[in-house]
Input
Amino acid sequence: MEKQITRFTSWLKKQNAAFFFSILFILFSLYFLITSFDYPYHTKFGIGPGFFPRWVSILAVITGILYLISSVTREKFSFEDAFPGAKGIGNVLLVVASIVLFIVIAPYTGFVIAGSLMLFSIFIKQYTLSKSIIYAILITVICFLIFKKAFSVPLPVNAWGF
Amino acid sequence: MKNSKLFVLFLVVVFGTLVLSGFSSVFAADYPDHEITIVVPYNAGGASDMTSRIVATGMQEALGQTILVVNKPGGSGGVGMSEVRAAKPDGYTISYIPVEIVMHETLKLSDLKSDDFDYIGQLTLVPSALTVAADAPYNTVKEFVDYALAHPGEVTIGNSGAGSIWHIAATYLEQVSGAKFNHIPFDGAAPAVTALMGGHINAVTVNAGEVLSGVEAGKLKILAIMTEERDPNMPDVPTMKESGFDVVIGGWGGLGVPKGTPADVMEKLSAAVEKATDSQEFKDFISQRGMVVCYKNSADFTKFVADQTVFFTDLLSKMELGG
Amino acid sequence: MIESLGSLMQGLAVAISPMNILYCFIGCAVGMLVGVLPGIGPTEATALLIPLTYGMSPVSAIIMLCGIYYGGMYGGTITSVLINTPGEAASVVTCLDGYPLAKQGRAGVALKVAAYGSFVGGILSIFGLVLLAPPLADWALKFGPSEMFALLVFGMCMVVGLMGKSMIRGLVSIFIGLLLALVGMDTVSGAVRFTLGSNQLVGGLSIVTICMGLFGLSEILVGMENLSQTNKVSSVASSKLRKEEWGPTVGSIIRGSFLGFFMGLIPGTSSAIPALISYSMEKRLSKHPEKFGTGIPEGVAGPETANNSYVGGAMIPLFTLGIPCSPTIAILMGAFMLHGLTPGPTLFIENPIVVWGTIASMFVGNIILLIMNVPLANVWAKVAQIPNKMLYPVVLIVAILGAYTVSNSMFEVGIMLVCGVIGYLLKKLDIPMAPIALVFVLSEMMERSILQSIKINKGLSGLYNSPICMTLLIISVIILIVSLFAEYSNKKSRFLTSDDE
Output
């Protein structure tokens, strides 16, 4: 299993990132192109809501194809060049995961707990435990006071009001 | 590794408090015992938002509790109102309810229905006014309609977006008079009025308050207002009815709570709204904005909404909107 | 004209009463604060503070609210320069050179140049307001849907100048912006498009959320990659301009002032347009266009000046015709009405003290901002020195709050996260991001205006019957051709030198 993963990663490293992205981009444009057919191109009052999306997405698909061609001919970006090693990616994923965690739990726990947890999970790799907890709570509480109290932004809160 | 154990401990503590917080349900003391939220389903700074904020200040005094005004814009009011509909019917979450509530179902804007709410009271009436450039060749609605009949499809009327109340108002006039207009949607009423001033369109049917500055600047004239009676702030402007076209239409705004709110809570809220709409501040603001203070109590407003639902559903089904 | 100056002096007497100076100061300070905090822009802050002004005299109330407006305009600059996170569309171009300057330890330079530029732009546009108001307001009304469309086409051509090294990657970026702008309800037909069935998307995506994600969050994600390494904090370099930088910077400030002022007059524009045009224009006029985007002061000065002088220009239609040109101005108009004043020409006659007091207070406000910001620039510059492992999490939570505040819902935070991940990928692939944000703002207005024009004129005749429109379209085509050619020859020369870098 481990062997396969290493093989996979070394294979991936050599791949052309721009090529993959251009395919993603083409799919993204195609979604718009296909969906644009749901909206009338013409109405009896003139141009319909389908007109602009149709043309924009057609041009976007063409751009995507040109990008695809240039990615294999001229502008190669291997994953190795573009992305850092496993550790770097791990950090990036950690941030993304902590935001997801925040989004999921904040409506139940309130902003302060969810925000502190999010910051804590990022801080813990850089600071000592006690510092991480203090910083995480301090920063969250300050933000909470500014946005909630001073600007009365209705941040999600728990039963105790934070 | 010590760190990760402590981290687990930290998580346990946090989630523990989380679970406990779920049980600490608040037992009802006398309503209201904590802050109340009014959700405005439009952006900050608009007429609906300002109206709600001023009413909130008045209600705050009457109820003795903080009232937060929160903007949840999007989807022709659908986002904010849907959220209030889903809230607990305990009187702590109130929605500003605009005229659009009676159209959501017919126009397929969302799955909101007008009987999803209990209605506390009406605040305002927002009359539509037919306004044209000051140097236009017509001075009355009659002349305007005659001109439009002679030039079918050529008279351009600006509104604040397709399917908006002002678009419907113009279409209603079209239906009653038999004229054919060219409806031009703008992104809000102000850009439509600006285009009228610049001579890019022939008329607008938006709220009178939006055109007052233009009238004072000598650039625009109001031909008629689409209410039952003349507006005391503009005694010289005739109503559509007087001019021979039975067109009474306009926007309105009120407050509502999720269906099933207890009667005693409704009573308290209704009394607070009545007091708030009676303040001088509120009256001044509303009339300056070209709107009309129109307080209706819970029962009257509920009936009014039901009538309006029938009226608009009928009207919209006869119209060919869109395009 | 002399009369106007006389009235202005009277107004000045009102504006420099200690209480009014205090209110102006409060307004500027609050404005700067909300400018720095994403999500809460000047529009929201003005709306929130209006109820507080009930008890105040009309002049003081308006003075304070105006202070918030131009204070907010400046506040947005700070985050763009320091953490590459524009709080609104107008500051997107400021990031292009402001952030590289900050990375070189020259954040102080960027902020100071922006402060001076804002000041000059603000003052010049107020003079314009005093001396030229009525005739200009009438001229600006000539901009109907057709003319607006031509102006937006012109703006789009300017975006080409921001495409970066590769034409094809620039185009990809432009199309991402165009496609994202399609999401939501189409104002013209009322049709709801590309929402994947989500009620929350009916209103379309928000530019603030997109900016927070594409710029702010993606910056954090890239930074997180090597957070563990001791991060190199560039020392604060001198916050003075270098000798050779003076000329172009002063030039860009003066050009930016005029540009912003005239754009402000036109109803329905946004302050992002003058900022964008100013940046492209400076790049075009520069002797070293290749340095744009690497951190040069004139790239910050021009756009910042333009978006501040835009404020003065935008006041003209408000005062003379009662037309609110932008959302913030619309709220200011609401504030006038709340205090029993209807903006429009009669206001000058009935309440000259209010009008001239307000105008004079804008002078005072700009001076206050300058006094506050020049020394503060050095303080802010130190923010760029906070170690990344502390700075990034703080920026992260503020960005999340900013996105949340847009519609007070967690959904918006989710959108920001998606934009952040996309931004991260784009950065990796060297696809420029500024075009996405700018095209997003422009294209929505563009679709609306062309459809309105076609509907009003029953065809395309609106475009070729209007001289303003034709002129703008022809200039656009010329610029497009010239800039495409320039990009091409630029690229050729860069191929020869790129190996040395």
